[in-house]
Protein 1
Amino acid sequence: MRKKEFDEYSPEHLNRLKKLLSDIYLGLGKLSENIYLVGGLVPDLLVRNKLSYIKEYLGTLDIDLAVKFAVNYKNKFRDLYGKLRSMGFEKQKTADGKDAMSHSFIKYEGGFKPIVLDLLIDDKFPPKVDRLKEIAHNVDAVKFKGVYLVFEDFVVRRIVKKNHEDIEIKIPNIIPFLTLKAFAYMDEDNRAAKDAFDIWYTVVNFKTGPDSVRKELLRYKTNHDVADAFGAMRKLFEDEASIAVKDVRNILVLRYGLNIALANREIIYPMRRLWL
């Protein structure tokens, strides 16, 4: 993560995302029953920060939603594109600007950073080679490994919307969240330092910390996807030279002002406790 990117992560943008998230859930109506928040907004809702040197959660730049979908659900989602359009979202362009993407939507708000909304779905839909799955007319979702875990193990959080009832948001519990983040970080072509930070941040802040995460992990001892993710995570956070430790250390030093030695201790010690 480059230094200049730090300015893009702010409490103000995080609050805008949460406000818009509640608007999205309201706008989707009954469809929101099949929508689960995943990605970088989750840590702020899943755990409460207990680290004195972190005054505010780093934040995130977009909204990632996992869609609980089955082929016979397709009629349920027939109005999804229209609903997204009515909320001000339009399809994002590809990097070369020539085509529109049907899984990634963007909302422009004057004077603020645009907000990106990405849709995900579990990767088990055939054909396996296809990266995208059509879930409605003009709307696709990215197939992603381990998304099914979120639908089986989630918690509900409430976002207070001014002058309206609280909005209930379903988010992954700790093990599904860490599994998805590990898979995202394992993708070297799309690896982001923020994914490593989110893994570490949720581990140290979940209930009583790594010991509580380890207890949750026992429930998944026969799940191969979780085993793969946590096996990779162990190597990624192994020591000071490991890529994930470097990425988190860089954020702790440049964003939160820790010295290098303290940052290394803050990262490596709690992560090692996961495998005691």
Protein 2
Amino acid sequence: MKTLGMIAGLLAAAGAATAQDTIRIRNKDGSIAEKQAEVVTLTNKMIEFEIDLGTSRAKQNEDSRNVIEIVPDNNGRTFDYNQAELAVNNGDWDQAVERFDKVRKDQRARELLRQLALIGMVKASWNKGDVAGTIAAARALRQERPESFFIRESFELEVKAHLAKNDHPAAGQVLQQFEDKGKSDGMPDWSKSAEVMRGRLLELQGKHREALQIHRKYARDRDVAEEASLGELRCLREIGDWAGLASRGEAILAENKGKRGLSARLMTGAYNARGEAALNSGKVKDALLDFLQGAMVLNKGGETSLEHEVALGRGAVAAARVAGAEKEKPKKDLWKTRAQELLAELERSYPGSKLRAEAAKEIGAVK
């Protein structure tokens, strides 16, 4: 029996040694590299991992700022973690939060899983539309893991939650905490992120030209380019710079065409920009095609975002205008139905959306 126990132990150890997490790293040239290794330590500054060399293992580390994603090995996941991911895939945010909470408290779970569970609770609460839950989960993450790999993301999501309920003073306070943490930890990219989020705060206060200056400052900065570029597009629309909006949207689409790991949000924002410019110039069919890219084509994972919401809402408006311009009843009915489908999806995915009223009005005007 003792021999069998020893063999079982050796087999278990061998199985553990071959467990491989996937670490996706952004290189200096912007390309993405993948490493298969076991993550053993992860903080906001550095992740440490062990690579299996066959007969031995080598320990390496990587600057956390270069790591864009860590996918835990299937063999190292717990039952609750798998159930949490299944809930996320099904959009069952309550179940996701409940399961991630169990992983967070599981002393047997790997540190990687427990940190992923903590940020998973923040994301699930945000996707559910639970602003108070998002704020509470973000603060819990920072309290439990002050040096977590996901500290930056927790700050960013908490700020978004405060902005979602128009609590600008609270958003400003968290932005200051975020910036102070970045300075104390020697993370200059955090200060950039905080400034871009201040740009968003200015947008919500109606100060679009001031916000535009901030977004343009960072639109090509690797650390915060995505958020800054999306902010730039929003501001150009708000100030009515249609030529600038079309040009910037086109540039983003051209720059990212064919790139691996491209951001669906950024591409949707760029298509929306081009669509808005086309809609403003009366090219409604061109506009509709652009909005449909973001509303239906790019949103394969079903994630919610401001860009997807805009694509649905403005797509419904464009489809209604296409219907209104049609002379033949079958075609008119076809496009009106498409507009109604987009509006229905907007109402389902974004209850209370401010874009609903205009879309419903445009559809109602189609006779």
Protein 3
Amino acid sequence: MSAPTKCSARTSRSYTDRTLKLLWGRAAGRCAIPECRVELFAEATEYDPVVVIGEIAHVAAAADDGPRAASALAAAQRNDYKNLILLCQNCHARIDGQTGLYSVDRLKDIKQAHEAWVRASLPERGRSRTGWTVLGLQGDHPIDLASANAALAPDFMVDKPLLLQVPTNTADWAAVDVAIAAKARQFLAGGDTFDQRIAVFPLAPVSACISLGYHLTSRPHVRLFQHHRDDRTWEWPRRAAPAQDIAVSGLEREPSRCPAATFLFHYTSVITDDVIDEVSVPLDCRVDFRVRDPSSGWLQHPDQLKWATFEARRAFERAMQLFPHATQWHLLLRRSGAARGGDWAAD
């Protein structure tokens, strides 16, 4: 057996070379938490080297006073591969701070499931078995899907990309919504919608993106991509997820009989009063979604899409309780310096 490798000057933790190879190899260098799975390396830049952002976490604590402590375990058992899990820094902090949620048994299950996912998704020849139907949502500007396969890697595109053209020179967004709904039904027809995999590459008004998401429903597996204009690529930047910074206001109120609800998303920029006056939407029942630094570069990680989806769904469900008589929902988002809004009938 190879000699132990010291991992920290502050502790007596040490791991053999074999343990480290098993841990990093079987995890494919990714965080084991299923909703994260971020690559545990920050790529080198012109000025800086590659940075390892992965951390070795203990399932049962390394110390007797640590999280999920098991004093009966010997030091060698605590530092053995079976008691270790590979995580990013954020997930490591979360599991050690939320030991009620992340028990020893649950972490073992997470590790086993992650390694099974790696074996299924990254077979020995480096190509995933998972194919995706690519859907391009096109507005005023043509979509270049040349890097779509690279963005999907190690998964891949099946058949040719499907393109949905969205008219942007019309105020009749209800008609656009109807057209998108018909196309979504066409995508979902003739197959098992619970097993379908659709990768969406949008370069269209945000209203059209919301419409497509609604009509695709929660049944198929859907992956979303953002076009990064500076790099001219659809690949998400390889970096750790930023802190969750979405704040929602306007839901801390008593129920109201207002006929319309307005949702303002201040993500790419702040929606100012003059813009609101220009589109003439009612503000009696107003809900605002804000981030710390709104900008066109705010969206840099797929986790931000998950957070935005979660906060929107939570707000919409609460709004249905607060504004049960609202027959119209107005969604305002700022994109490319212009307000894009749409009237949406409440279910």
